[in-house]
Write a structure and sequence with these properties.
Strands 6, 7, 8, 9, 10 and 11 form a six-stranded mixed β-sheet that branches. The chain has a three-stranded antiparallel β-sheet with strand order 3-4-5. Helix 1 runs parallel beside helix 2 (43-53). The protein folds into three domains: 13-75, no CATH class; 90-144, Methyl-cpg-binding Protein 2, Chain A (2-Layer Sandwich); 148-325, no CATH class. It has twelve helices and eleven strands. The chain has 326 residues and is an alpha+beta fold.
């Protein structure tokens, strides 16, 4: 049931329950999928009742414009498991775009991997990875092909949805006035996108915005400008537009509050914001590697000893600790 559809969006909670009850097959386990059900008042009553009354598996999906992922457990009594979705990995990118990796043998007997499209055209693996670094992992791009103009149009829609609906509209629905300046929000997004993989201080961002006239000096009002910037950053984190990686004191084995790093959820969104050009490729690849580690179940932090920087990486499943040095 997609509650953006006119067929369902005018339903009340009791109507949802009654509609589903009519669809059940006696003696069969039901799998129920609800998209944007947060649009329905008291939707949690219908979901909780269905969970109790039916032999079913229930999946609830929706944007953060209506409900933060952290708030689901408060609405859904009983077992609730959150499944976080990420854009496509490189291997998934190849699959979605109908590329196949094959091993080929040279005349001298060497073996290498090459990529073939559905028409049999052959490409080097590096070429395919460069396409991934340019177009990113948003699944919708697979439907329009690797066309830069069409990709920009799709990415513009994704950006507008996240910023306008998932952040600004959510603040309006909450009746809060923390995130009200769309220009400041975009400026912050551009700053973080341009500084992925770099140590970032919220206080320094606040001072920069004050100097540029984008933010009032909050010290006069008793509220430091860094607090305002942190509120905007938190909104971006809640929307999963950016991800934060904490700094780890390797010697003291504790997390520090200052100088963390931020990564953008999809590298193509950075290209959309800053332009398609070969810029800062090291940090761009670092962004991709960070999300690949998340997909593989690692918890990542950054750390420093003297002039050496590393990343303590903990495999959640096996509780192993490794250090990746650069």
């Amino acid at each position: 049931m997609n509650f953006e559809s006119n067929d369902f969006r005018k339903m009340a909670s009791d109507d949802v329950y009654a509609y589903v009850k009519k669809q059940i097959v006696p003696g069969k386990r039901m799998y129920l999928f609800f998209d944007e059900i947060q649009r329905i008042d008291a939707w949690e009553d219908a979901i909780n009742a269905l969970r109790v009354d039916l032999d079913c598996d229930i999946y609830v999906t929706g944007s953060n414009a209506y409900l933060l992922s952290s708030e689901y457990s408060a609405y859904l009594s009983g077992g609730c498991v959150e499944i976080k979705m990420l854009p496509l990995s490189f291997s998934e990118f190849l699959y979605f775009h109908n590329f196949e990796v094959r091993e080929t043998r040279s005349a001298l007997g060497g073996v290498r991997k090459q990529v073939f499209d559905k028409n049999g055209e052959r490409y080097e693996l590096r070429e395919a990875f460069e396409a991934f670094m340019r177009f990113g992992g948003m699944p919708g791009i697979a439907d329009i092909g690797l066309d830069q103009e069409k990709a920009l149009s799709l990415l513009d829609g994704i950006y507008s949805t996240v910023v306008v609906r998932d952040i600004l509209e959510r603040e309006r629905r909450r009746g809060q006035k923390r995130i009200t300046d769309s220009i400041l929000l975009r400026k912050l997004i551009l700053f973080l996108a341009d500084n992925i993989g770099s140590n970032v201080s919220i206080a320094s961002i606040g001072n920069t915005f004050v100097n540029e006239g984008l933010l009032e000096d909050g010290r006069r009002k008793g509220v430091p400008s860094a607090h305002t910037v942190q509120a905007y950053v938190n909104a971006l984190l809640e929307s999963y537009f950016i991800y934060e990686i904490k700094r780890f004191d390797i010697k003291g084995k504790e997390y520090l509050r200052t100088l963390g790093k931020y990564y953008i959820v999809d590298i193509a969104l950075r290209n959309y914001l800053l332009g398609f050009r070969n810029r800062d490729s090291g940090h761009a690849i670092e962004n991709v590697v960070y999300f690949e580690l998340l997909r593989r179940g690692y918890d990542v932090a950054i750390g420093k000893i003297d002039n050496m920087e590393g990343a303590p990486v903990r495999r959640l499943k096996y509780r192993q600790v490794k250090v990746l040095s650069r």
